[in-house]
## 1
Amino acid sequence: MEKLRQLYFWIDDRLHLTKLFESTAGHHVPKSSGSWFYVFGSATLLCFIIQVVTGICLALIYQPSASEAYASLEYLSYDVPLGWYLRAVHNWGSNFMVGIMLLHMTQVFLFGAYKYPREITWLSGCILLFLTLGMAFTGQVLRFDEDAYWGLGIGASIMGRIPFFGQEVVNMMLGGPIIAGQTLSRFFTLHVFVLPGAIIALVSLHLRMVLTKGINEYPTPGILVDRKTYDAHYQTILRKEGVPFVPHAIDKDLIASAVVLGLILFLAAFDGPKMPNGLADPTQIDTVPRPDFFFLWIFALAALLPPYMESFVLLVGPIVLSILLFTLPFFNNTGEKSWRRRPIAVLTVVLVWLTFGILTYLGKTSPWSPDMQAWTKDETPKEFLVNRSPLELQGNLVLQYKQCRLCHAIDGIGGKRGPDLAEVGMRLTEPQLVRQVVQGGGNMPAYGKNLTRDEITALTAYLVSLRPPGIPPARDSTLPAKPAPETPVSAQR
Amino acid sequence: MIGIPLAGYVASIMVEKFPLQWINLGPLSKFPEGKTTLATYLNPYRRSWDGDTDLIPCWVRRLAGENFQIFAINCAHLGCPVRWFEESQLFLCPCHGGAYYADGSRASGPPPRGLFEYEYKIEQGDLFVKGGLLPTLADTNP
């Protein structure tokens, strides 16, 4: 036993392990920081470690070549034992990493942890957010399926909007004038060398800052941050109620990490990997490209912005957002930390989550996209066909055959880009319908050149008939509802 | 010292020029008059490891005789592949619902302009397109 003790002291003397422990895992933290709200940072780190480990394993098989990538993913998924599971874990790990990181950021914001003296911790965290989103984007490119191909096209099209040197940036992004083998190579380089390296460097800085500037104490309403007194205040907290992080404050982190790990492993087993979505063959244009979950909001934004401000928002928006994020700890450096007394901070969080949430939902459902198959696959419900005149029925055929259903649903069946036509007869009069069909407008193309006079007559007759039972057709509001009573001759004088 | 060759190596792609090249799309008989058909050509800058991405599609509209219009497949909005709908005489984009008329002009939706159009020429009965670039708004004359 004594020998073992001596050996321990010898090793410790040479390697300074005790000192290392005291200054890192065993450093003192405010007891109040051992809270469930403080588990998101370590859970994000766990996700990153999972991504590194599974990523290295996937790289043993994956071929970063445009001609081989797809086949190697199929081989990974179907032939390599547990290859499918590693791919699934890598995919779910990525989802959790972004998601938990956003929760971590929200918590840090609400708890005022970015304020003095933790500005650099916040800054490094913001850069880590961008790097992680970069990992998510480059990762979906490595799947090199049709979504990846056209996703690159979308990325290049956004870059192409940069004034003066847009083409140079596009060439830099794609590695040439068009999406090809070099494009995949450079996204592979970013995904496995550049971005992870930068993340490891930034995580080191982030953790170093947590050690040197201390973890934020659980904020108490009314206790304000003052640059002159805060450091002494924090030391007092550590003296009075400081506990070593290991073993006294790490318990909740471990439990949360275990839950996250369990969820990732379960969802990966339950849901399986995200399979590549068709070969990256640009001639297969029968495709509906969609980005991965965390970029759906950009996809939605691109659909909803008016054309005149789109380039400006897509190019300047990220810069403005970054400046806001990076300068936050400097223009809001001191004062109240508790969210209970920072209503604007709470409102900001609610608004930001709502905005991104709604945009993501819209991106997922994308009601602005025509339903390309609607004209052949979607039937007209029976109640919209019975009791119609031959002319109106002919109009229904025009509606179907001229592909109006791609954008217009009837009673919810069909494309959602334009208004549902189920009750159009009570909204628009026949002349208004004729004008709309012939001239278009309000996001509808003009069909004047493409329909004969007879087709237009039949189509509008059918559209007028589309209204609930018992409701009369819309009438021109500029005309009197009933014939005006005849003016007595005596009044005319 | 190593920075200079590194920067030169990485940034060379930004200054390198990729002029458009004439590519044969095949005999005129492939393209019926009054119709718009999908044609594909091989990327003039292809490499052996490009896989299927060395193929580039485009829409060829033959109005009459030797009068053609050749459109890029990429929507002028964000580059998604537009599809031709013969019955409604429209190109529609599956991403954000951009729509173009048969002559490539913008019909509706978010695109800020009409479809990108390629130059063409006819030599010895074959149709040639001047292509090889992913058209974006950066490039006004693809």
## 2
Amino acid sequence: MSPEGHPKSPNFRSEFLAGVRDLLPILLGVMPFGLIFGALAISVGIPPLAAQFFSLLVFAGSAQFIAVGLIGEMAPVIVIVVTIFVVNLRHALYSASMSPHFAPLSMRWKLSLSWLLTDEAFATATTRYQRGNTDAAHWYTLGTGLALWSAWQISTALGILLGGEIPTSFPLAFALPLTFIALLVPTLRDRPTVAAAASAGVIAVLLSGLPLRLGLLMGAVAGIGIGLWIDRKAANVQS
Amino acid sequence: MSSLEIWLVILAGMVVTYLTRLSFTVLVPPDRLSPAFGRGLIYIPPAVLAAIVLPELILVDGEIAILLTNHQLVAGSLAALIAWRLKNTWLTIASGMLALWLLTTL
């Protein structure tokens, strides 16, 4: 038996199902965007099969929206690919955050869980790792990732099928920021984490005019730096 | 845009996106980096999530709007309070949506 365990072992199965269950409310925020993505991709002339493969292979909501906009404007391929890369650079932060948790796993697990690393699945899995007793938490992470991936595929397919019948402005669109609020609040555990979040948010707002969602990335990096700085100041006072 | 170019965008987009996701889990394990890097990891979730959320709540048509007439900000603040006190994702989303609906219809 591999160190990761067998899928039928009750502990692994209950972790997997808990991951799926905890991601379900997040889908309320995600699925409308999958629908709109499918419809939007068709409207700019992307063939239905390619629109579905966009979600299957790239699997990154905001980058997919921006890329489809650029395809509609006939931007050069290299510009679109660089844009996708920069918009998705925040995943490197998720990758760094998960790396100590994934370190004991086999390469097959690392490759699979990394493939499924998105904003929502990352934030949900983070709350699981904070709860401790993490021997089987990779099954939880797999549950969150697969639940989100499946929902993204299904909602994209529905968007492709329904096409023009999807209204472009959804009252449900506000559910997505709300899911991020639900994910953000439990991470605010002490002064340094609150300072990291507050400074990241303020800088992201002030730099929101920058292209390629660079304000988000720069705000996040600055917030991490400020969290570390306050952490170190507190440590110096104690010693 | 030709369908060959669209497929090229999808395949190259897949590669660059997967590279960002593999960067530290597979490509550069952080144990080779400085201890400060390890301590910085715990600030990634609050920093990134706040950088996603705050502009969504505070900006209206690209302008900063810290006002009671900014319904998204009011509804989002209520949802944050619910998330903090009740620690329940369903209730957080439901209360935020309900608050937004009430504010925009009343």
